[in-house]
């Protein structure tokens, strides 16, 4: 275990992977632990896989993989007496996601006889609280055009807020050895212990931002991997424990670009880090030292993420090889649409055609108009208010697509090749993001109850 | 990707040389500098796209070395108008074009046509929207 004196000088954080459940490489974990880390910290969530997971309350990582990775971390924590911090439990970081991860955690503890002092931190937003904030004009849009309304809050299936480092610190103050938190700012999970120990907030957050993606800031950049961060009082270094990878100035600097709108500025609860004065220097052949990042305080805000159910989705996958059909694909699909609206009208459902080989990948951003493929892939999608309506409209759309005629048609037995039987696949609930706003708060702990739980 | 090798020698090339081309053919022959049409993908190490949150798309062009990066910057080849044209979007949807010296990189951030995963989505992660930028052609100075 780290001595107090050493901890004051510098602190070592091991991020075993960029996402809990992506598979911690055994060798990287061993090499990382050999560096005597003061804490294991990992981010477990993102909005990246889209709105479904937050809405449906399910994880997007497999239970088996998460259990395996978490067990590796807990074994190390048990042997070494170092804390484990986990943010954005279950991916979405809502109540069911947190409960899901806590259940996995309890199972591991039961199997191994672990008795960690354990804290959980909820991050789901109470709708009445949020409506009051809207009424007080303390909610502003973030990258979306519309102000948040009471109707949107009512329509939302689930809304979470991203916590900063403060709730983690409170959990540690309460004696927690393992902290499992709902939606959290990814950098804050990793920065929490260094900030609590008195290290510079800007450096700790910047280190957290690099470590939250695990080995992504090291080259070669493939697979999920670990990253070590060592912070002292005027710099930090990052280094991959995997001996086959290195951190270079290029790999670390380039990571500042990743999934961010502005590499010079990263907004967080309570301010932003500013990279205008940041320097990256090759400290050793495998590690990079970072200096000069500044913290710019701002009114304390939480980022809100919320989704609503758009309906129930049914899809069918097909393709055509026929050049006569391909040459008039747009008109043919409009015929299919007309056939469907003849039976079901035009309201209460959405019928969408994803045409691979035309604009299936880029959609509205596609500027190439000419189709040059000898075959086209087609995904027919229907979203309606209930699963039965969705399936019924998709069934008609699929049969109309198979049998509709078009000028010059030779293949009168059928227009499409279907790879699957059944051809119609129920995709369940479809969600969409409707809340992406900032809410001003007086207290960083305002929304996030820290609870010590029994195993 | 195939590298474009449409050489433009001076005299029937870019605007910068056209101004002097008629006057002194001899000196032009001594000056072996020329420009070639190159795609951004030809000169960059990486060209990527990805979501930056559910409502923004961010494109990163990372150059292999400082010299290439400086050359690219000096050309001023990308602005809101160019990006808007490449993606068929209004210029107001191109939010930022940022040169990031520490990574020899240029970042472009734009609004997504739809929030990630909304009905009509084609690319939830936004990871396959890089191609129009990658194939964009620029007049690249070359020493023959």
Instruction: Give the termini distance of chain B in whole angstroms.
Output: 22 Å
* Percent range of helical residues of chain B: 25-40%
What structural class is derived from the secondary structure elements of chain B? alpha+beta
The oligomeric state of the chains shown is: heterodimer
Alpha carbon gyration radius of chain B: 18 Å
Number of strands of chain A: 19
The portion of residues assigned to helices of chain A is 25-40%
Mean pLDDT of chain A: 96
Q: What structural category characterises the helix and strand content of chain A?
A: alpha+beta
Question: In angstroms, what is the radius of gyration of chain A?
Answer: 25 Å
Query: What does the largest sheet of chain B look like?
Result: 4 strands, antiparallel
In DSSP terms, counting alpha (H) and pi (I) runs of 4 or more, how many helices of chain A? 14
Number of strands of chain B: 7
Q: Describe the global form of chain B.
A: elongated
Biggest sheet of chain A: strands, sense, closure? Answer: 10 strands, mixed
Q: Please mark out the parts of chain B with pLDDT under 50 across 5 or more consecutive residues, or reply none.
A: 1-31
Walk me through this protein's architecture.
The complex is a heterodimer of chains A (455) and B (144). Chain A has 455 residues and is α+β, with helices and mostly antiparallel strands. Helix content of chain A is 32%, strand content 26%. Chain A is built from 14 helices and 19 strands. Chain A has helices at 4-9, 26-34, 52-56, 63-80, 95-112, 127-135, 150-155, 166-173, 186-196, 201-211, 249-255, 323-326, 329-344, 387-403; strands spanning 11-15, 39-43, 84-87, 118-121, 139-141, 158-161, 178-181, 227-231, 236-239, 265-268, 271-274, 279-284, 287-291, 294-297, 301-320, 349-356, 376-384, 424-440, 450-453. In chain A, the strands form three sheets. In chain A, strands 12-13-9-8-1-2-3-7-4-19 form a ten-stranded mixed β-sheet, with helices on both faces. In chain A, helix 4 packs across helix 5, helix 8 (166-173) crosses helix 9 and helix 9 (186-196) packs across helix 10. Chain A is globular. Residues 1-6 of chain A have low confidence and may be disordered. By secondary structure, chain B is of the alpha+beta class. Chain B has six helices and seven strands, in the order E-H-H-E-H-E-E-H-H-E-E-H-E. Chain B has helices spanning 15-21, 25-30, 40-43, 66-75, 80-87, 131-134; strands at 6-8, 33-39, 46-51, 56-62, 94-100, 105-111, 137-143. Chain B has a four-stranded antiparallel β-sheet. A three-stranded antiparallel β-sheet of chain B has the order 1-2-7. In chain B, a hairpin with a 4-residue loop joins strand 5 (94-100) and strand 6 (105-111). Chain B starts with 5 loop residues before the first strand and ends with a strand. Mean pLDDT of chain B is 83; it is low at 1-31. Chains A and B meet through helix 11, strand 16 and strand 18 of A and strand 3, strand 4, strand 5 and strand 6 of B.
């Amino acid at each position: 275990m780290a001595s107090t004196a050493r901890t004051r000088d510098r602190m070592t954080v091991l991020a075993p992977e960029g996402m809990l459940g992506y598979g911690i490489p055994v060798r990287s974990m061993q090499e990382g632990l050999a560096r005597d880390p003061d804490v294991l910290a990992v981010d477990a969530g993102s909005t990246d896989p889209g709105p479904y997971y937050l809405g449906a309350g399910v994880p997007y990582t497999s239970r088996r993989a998460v259990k395996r990775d978490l067990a590796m971390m807990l074994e190390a924590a048990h042997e070494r007496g170092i804390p484990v911090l986990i943010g954005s439990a279950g991916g979405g970081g809502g109540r069911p996601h947190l409960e899901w991860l806590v259940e996995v955690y309890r199972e591991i503890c039961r199997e191994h006889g672990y008795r960690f002092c354990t804290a959980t931190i909820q991050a789901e937003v109470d709708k009445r609280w949020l409506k009051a904030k809207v009424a007080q004009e303390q909610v502003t849009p973030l990258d979306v055009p519309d102000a948040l309304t009471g109707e949107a809050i009512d329509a939302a299936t689930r809304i979470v807020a991203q916590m900063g480092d403060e709730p983690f610190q409170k959990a540690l103050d309460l004696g927690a050895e393992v902290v499992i938190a709902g939606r959290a700012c990814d950098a804050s999970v990793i920065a929490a212990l260094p900030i609590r120990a008195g290290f510079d907030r800007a450096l700790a957050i910047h280190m957290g931002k690099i470590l939250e993606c695990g080995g992504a800031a090291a080259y070669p950049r493939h697979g999920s991997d670990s990253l070590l961060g060592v912070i002292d009082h005027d710099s930090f270094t990052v280094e991959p424990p995997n001996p086959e990878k290195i951190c270079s100035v290029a790999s670390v600097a380039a990571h500042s670009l990743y999934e961010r709108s502005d590499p010079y500025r990263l907004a967080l609860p309570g301010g932003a880090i500013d990279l205008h004065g940041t320097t990256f220097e090759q400290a050793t052949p495998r590690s990079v030292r970072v200096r000069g990042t500044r913290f710019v305080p701002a009114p304390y805000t939480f980022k809100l993420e919320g989704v609503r159910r758009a309906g129930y989705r049914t899809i069918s996958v097909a393709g055509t090889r026929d050049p006569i059909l391909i040459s008039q694909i747009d008109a043919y699909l409009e015929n299919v649409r007309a056939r469907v609206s003849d039976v079901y009208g035009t309201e209460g459902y959405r019928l969408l055609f994803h045409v691979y080989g035309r604009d299936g990948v880029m959609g509205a951003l596609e500027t190439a108009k000419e189709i040059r493929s000898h075959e086209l892939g087609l995904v027919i999608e229907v979203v309606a208010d209930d699963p039965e309506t969705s399936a019924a409209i998709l069934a008609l759309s699929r049969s109309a697509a198979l049998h509709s005629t078009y000028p010059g048609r030779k293949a009168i037995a059928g227009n499409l090749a279907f790879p699957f039987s059944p051809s119609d696949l129920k995709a369940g609930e479809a969600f969409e993001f409707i809340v992406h706003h900032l809410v001003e708060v007086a207290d960083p702990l305002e929304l996030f109850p820290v609870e010590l739980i029994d195993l | 990707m195939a590298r474009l090798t449409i050489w433009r020698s001076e005299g029937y090339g870019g605007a910068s040389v056209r101004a002097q081309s008629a006057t002194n053919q001899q000196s032009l022959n001594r000056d072996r500098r020329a420009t070639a049409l190159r795609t951004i993908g030809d000169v960059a190490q990486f060209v990527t796209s990805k979501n930056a949150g559910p409502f923004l798309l961010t494109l990163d062009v990372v150059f292999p070395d400082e010299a290439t990066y400086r050359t690219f910057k000096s050309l001023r080849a990308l602005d809101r108008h160019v990006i808007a044209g490449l993606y068929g979007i209004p210029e107001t949807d191109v939010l930022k074009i940022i040169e990031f010296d520490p990574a020899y990189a240029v970042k472009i951030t734009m609004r997504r046509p739809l929030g990630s995963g909304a009905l009509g989505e084609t690319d939830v992660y936004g990871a396959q929207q890089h191609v129009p930028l990658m194939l964009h052609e620029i007049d690249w100075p070359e020493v023959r």
